[in-house]
Design goal:
26% helix; single chain; 4-stranded antiparallel sheet
C-alpha cells in the first residue's frame, strides 16, 4: 500500500492551509477535517503525488503502520483515492523538513457539526424571514415552512 500514488478523491474535496494547519472540506458530505502537524505534512505530500513510503524519514515519531493507518482513514473518508500513475519516490526537501519538525502522530479529526449548513442550498433552503444562514426547517408534513 505504501508504494501507491494518491490523489484528491474528487472536485468535492477541497483543502486550504491556514497558519501551517490544513482544513479539508468534503462538499458532498458537509464534513470537514483537520490534521495533526505530521498529518498536515503527510497530506501535502500525498496530494502532490509523493509515495507514502517516501514520507517516512529517519527520526520520525511515527512508523510505517502509522502512515498506513493515516492513509487508510483518508481513503475511508473518501478524501483520497489510489491512482494508477507512478508515485514520486523522493519527497521535496521542504516537506522532509516539515515532517522532521512534526511533534504529533499523524491523525485525522472529523467535524460534522456544520454539515447541514454546508449542504444547504443558500437560495432555496433558507428561512425567508431570517435569511442565510438559517436553514428552513420542515413542518409536520415534511414540506418546508414558508
Amino acid at each position: 500500500m505504501l508504494t501507491s500514488r494518491y490523489a484528491v478523491a474528487g472536485r468535492g474535496v477541497v483543502s486550504e492551509a491556514f497558519d501551517g494547519d490544513i482544513v479539508v472540506l468534503d462538499l458532498d458530505s458537509g464534513r470537514y477535517f483537520s490534521f495533526t502537524d505530521s498529518g498536515c505534512a503527510l497530506w501535502e505530500g500525498l496530494v502532490e503525488g509523493v509515495a507514502p513510503e517516501a514520507l517516512l524519514h529517519d527520526g520520525a515519531r511515527y512508523t510505517t503502520e502509522d502512515i498506513e493507518c493515516f492513509v487508510a482513514k483518508l481513503v475511508e473518508y473518501k478524501l483520497l483515492v489510489a491512482v494508477a500513475e507512478p508515485a514520486n519516490t523522493v519527497a521535496p526537501a521542504a516537506m522532509v523538513e516539515k515532517l522532521a519538525q512534526a511533534r504529533e502522530m499523524p491523525e485525522v479529526t472529523v467535524f460534522d457539526d456544520l454539515a447541514d449548513l454546508f449542504l444547504a442550498d443558500p437560495i432555496h433552503d433558507v428561512d425567508e424571514q431570517a435569511g442565510w444562514p438559517v436553514v428552513n426547517k420542515p413542518d409536520a408534513d415534511g414540506a418546508g415552512a414558508a
